[in-house]
Amino acid sequence: MRFKQFILAVIAAGTMGSGITSCTSKFDDYNTDQNATTTVTPGMLATNLIIGMMDMGGSKYSVYDNMRNKQIAWAEGSAENDQYNLFGRASFDSYTDLTNCQKMLLEAASATEEVQNSYKGLAKFFKAHHLFYLSMQVGDIPYSQSNQAEEGNIKPAYDTQKEVMRQVLEDLEEAQSLFAAGTTFDGDPVLNGDPEKWRKVCVAFELKVLMNLSKKTGDADLRVQERFANLATANNLMTSNDDNLQLVFSNTGSQQYPLYQNDHMQYLMVSSTIIDPLKEFNDNRLFYYAEAAPYALENGLTAEDWDAYMGIDPSAIQSDNNVLHGEGKDCGPNERYLTAEGEPLMYVSYMEQNFILAEAALRGWIGGTADEYYKKGIRASMEFIAEYTPNDATYHHNHPITEESISTYLEQDAIQLNGNFDHDLEMILLQKYLGSFLQHPENDCYYDNRRTGYPVLPINPESNMNTDPNKLPARWMYPQDELDYNRENLQSAIDSQYGGTDDYNKLMWILQD
Q1: Strands 268-270 and 72-74: what pairing?
Q2: Which helix (H) or strand (E) holds 269?
Q3: What is the pairing mode between strands 345-348 and 268-270?
Q4: Confidence of residue 340 (pLDDT cuts 50, 70, 90)
Q5: Are the C-beta atoms of residues 333 and 259 closer than 8 Å to each other?
Q6: Does 103 score more than 90 pLDDT?
Q7: CB count, 10 Å around CB of 309?
Q8: What is the dihedral of CA 295, 298, 302, 306, to 10 degrees?
Q9: CA–CA dist 355, 158 (Å, integer)
Q10: Helix or strand run (H / E) with residue 348
């Protein structure tokens, strides 16, 4: 992302001078930029960490998560690995951020205790966040011995996934306590250093972690249901879209939306897994997500017509989809995604929190009704889209999202929960999926499918590149670097989890009943 590159350049400018020692000379005096910073502050490091976490990448890299989640298909050349389930090896690059967290805390050591608490809370959150998602990809990972290279431990032992999750939960709870005892801190371009908002983010993220442990409610060490209920009743939940951890873009230099002026977007096709349910439910989000299919427009329909929107099966053979794309029988992304401002990127959101609470209520973990939270989640999604899209037919094709349209949508029979667990779980996770279009990176919708079977994602044995063509992969393989430099510890983890085989289709602990 260009925004991240800008931040990195600022930090690089601040560190160049501190790494060079030489004799002072007139030449040095003449060639010193008196306006450039010569020290790194904790705020600068915090900015890098926050922006880095929310980086969607440039070019088509920004939509790879959406390919894996089957929300889009791709029409450029040969089959994309991410669309067709060839996951490859995970990356452990996130451990670098943990080093930067340590440096941030060192630079903050002279600040007040309250400011230090906020930076400590941020560091705890980043560790829990990054290592949770790494574990979700592969299973066991180094956690208790992570980031000890500077202390001489370059071959950390692996913690079991259960132990990783236990430590993730404890770090998130400690982060919440630290933010509660903290104060406003510098370097936060997203939440303006507000410790109360960060505390809510930590709570919402812990709810997500706990829901991903839904198969482990019987584990007395993790206390999944008890922890969830405590969080849900502690009065620290997000209360509106204003609490979202989201990155806002602008038409300023490196801060533009990643799809803006992105030539690859001509190959993006909105999938049938998005378009078909939107049409089925008469959901105005359809007109904000996609452009009408050129073929439909050439044959007498207008962009206002529901039938002008044609979804592409993301599991269909690539050459067949390429033909459909060439014939204009697919929908590209709405023009609003191609503007400099785009829409904010939600990373932890009020919308998602409500769907997680809806699932928890359905499972009997908390009081209240699943329907209450379910409809709050749908409303939050629609209000977010309406707020961040100009009220212009160019972007909603004369189907604006209004209070009236939201109320009508929420009252229709087709989207109601009916008391049947499987039906209601499917509806909750489908609406979460629809609300996450080009949002919530990190494969969360795929993880929901892997855990529950919902949302239903298509599988085509003729196109599936997984080693088992009849299923989606259950995981990524471990990084090659770990095989090269930490083989003994890695092999021990593979042996204990997967019978000695680092395989895409082995079930990690979190997925085992």
Answers
A1: antiparallel
A2: strand 268-270
A3: unpaired
A4: very high
A5: yes
A6: yes
A7: 25
A8: -30
A9: 33
A10: strand 345-348
How many beta carbons lie within 10 A of that of residue 425, not counting itself? Answer: 20
3-state SS, 130-172, equals: HHHHHHHHHCCECCCCCCCHHHCCCCCCCECHHHHHHHHHHHH
Strand partners, 346: 246
Beta-carbon contacts of 97 under 8 Å, excluding residues fewer than 6 positions away, are 49, 52, 53, 126, 130
What sign does the CA torsion over 277, 281, 287, 288 have?
negative
Structure tokens at 496: 């204990």
Angle CA(221)–CA(226)–CA(227) in degrees, nearest 5?
80
Please, what is the Cα angle at 328 between 322 and 330, to 5 degrees?
75
Using N-to-C axis directions, what is the helix angle for 42-53 and 113-138, rounded to 10°?
A: 30
Of all residues in the chain, what percent carry a pLDDT higher than 70?
A: 93
Q: How far is CA 136 from the centre of its chain?
A: 13
Q: Is the pLDDT of residue 120 over 60?
A: yes
* Residue 281 and residue 409 in contact, taking contact as beta carbons nearer than 8 Å: yes
In DSSP terms, which residues pair with 313 in a beta bridge?
Answer: none
Average pLDDT for the chain: 92
Tell me what pLDDT residue 38 has: 54
**Nearest-angstrom CA–CA distance, 396 and 402:** 11
Mean pLDDT of 149-162: 90
Rounded Cα–Cα distance for residues 377 and 206 (Å):
18
Tokens of 211: 């829901």
